[in-house]
Amino acid sequence: MAVDLIAPSILSADFAKLGQEVDSVLAAGADIVHFDVMDNHYVPNLTIGPLVCEALRKHGVTAPIDVHLMVKPVDRIIPDFAAAGATYITFHPEASEHVDRTLQLIRGEGCKAGLVFNPATPLSYLDYVLEKVDMILLMSVNPGFGGQSFIPSALDKLREVREIIDDSGLDIRLEVDGGVKVDNIAEIKAAGADTFVSGSGIFGKGKDTDPNRYDSIIAQMRAALGRVGR
């Protein structure tokens, strides 16, 4: 049974003190640092690149770094993130000319590979590459911006992917990203997720007013997750 992992998305962090923000959420019990990499091409926003990943590693962050590439094309940037210290690299199949090759490239660079599915992207991309996938990330919002509301139909898709993973017998993490908060994380786990990305749901709460806000939020998330069996 996979251990539940909480992955704060630094897209919602205070970039003026990013190292401190990441240190704080990890000290509060988060497991993974999630990067939302946007190129103002595949999605209508521009965010961060490999230099930020490298800077956090040099800062002393040793936790896994989960890089979600919302860029097109993807292959050029993968070696740079691998060299910068990424642990997971996930990408959207629509952004790759050759999905199998891109998955092999990520693993060849020493990282774990994953596919990302937008709300309207079919799961059929998994049919011939499942054995090359270490993580499946389901978007529960349309990619491009933080702070969006969870799309309820993602729960049905989560159940479908959970069945695919369980039937395969493979060790694949099932991650969800978009609108994940304390009040819905239990329902999301019950649908099959084991890795939970939350940006504004963690970094946006009590900003600049509560110095211990991360401890409280992550503790509430853990408690909600603990009430759900699998």
Describe this entry's structure for a reader.
- By secondary structure, the protein is of the alpha/beta class.
- The protein has a single domain, classed as TIM Barrel (Alpha-Beta Barrel), CATH 3.20.20.
- It contains eight helices and eight strands.
- The protein has an eight-stranded parallel beta sheet.
- α2 packs parallel to α3.
- The model has no long low-confidence stretch (mean pLDDT 93).
Query: Regions with pLDDT < 50 over 5+ consecutive residues?
Result: none
Number of helices: 8
Report the helical percentage.
Answer: 25-40%
Mean pLDDT: 93
| Count of strand segments | 8
SSE arrangement, N to C: EHEHEHEHEEHEHEHH
Q: Examine the secondary-structure arrangement and name the CATH architecture.
A: Alpha-Beta Barrel
Q: Kindly report the name of the CATH homologous superfamily.
A: Aldolase class I
How many domains is the backbone divided into?
1
Amino- and carboxy-terminal Cα gap: 8 Å
